[in-house]
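lol forgot to send this yesterday, sorry. struct tokens for the thing we talked abt
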């Protein structure tokens, strides 16, 4: 099971300021079982919990978007790799959709940095 392998590797290489139990709990929350039964490291919906500065998450998401777009184009003729980037596109869009909802953006009108960060996001079409 891939999720178990990731957790074992993470525990073996845990941060000095985390106990083994802490590291297990952090990693356990990052491993998800997808609709097809495959386990994966969720670097989409967990992005906010993994950054120290909430504004950094927008750089992270925008970089993730560029990686996905560039690699969908790069691997458009590779039937082994392309499905993985199309899956990433789907997960990315699931993450971004509620964030770019205008009602959500309007909630941050008194915090222009967050509002601007949200407005910088878009779906991958």
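and heres what i got for the seq, position by position
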């Amino acid at each position: 099971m891939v999720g178990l392998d990731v957790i074992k590797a993470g525990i073996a290489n845990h941060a000095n300021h985390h106990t083994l139990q802490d590291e297990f709990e952090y990693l356990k929350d990052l491993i998800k079982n997808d609709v097809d039964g495959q386990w994966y490291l969720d670097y989409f919906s967990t992005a906010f919990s993994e950054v120290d500065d909430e504004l950094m998450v927008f750089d992270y998401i925008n970089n993730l978007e560029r990686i996905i777009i560039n690699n969908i184009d790069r691997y458009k003729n590779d039937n082994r790799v392309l499905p993985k980037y199309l899956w990433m596109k789907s997960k990315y869009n699931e993450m971004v959709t509620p964030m770019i909802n205008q009602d959500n953006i309007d909630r941050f009108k008194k915090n222009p940095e967050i509002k601007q960060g949200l407005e910088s996001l878009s779906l991958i079409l």
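Strands lie at 31-33, 39-41. anyway ping me if u want another try
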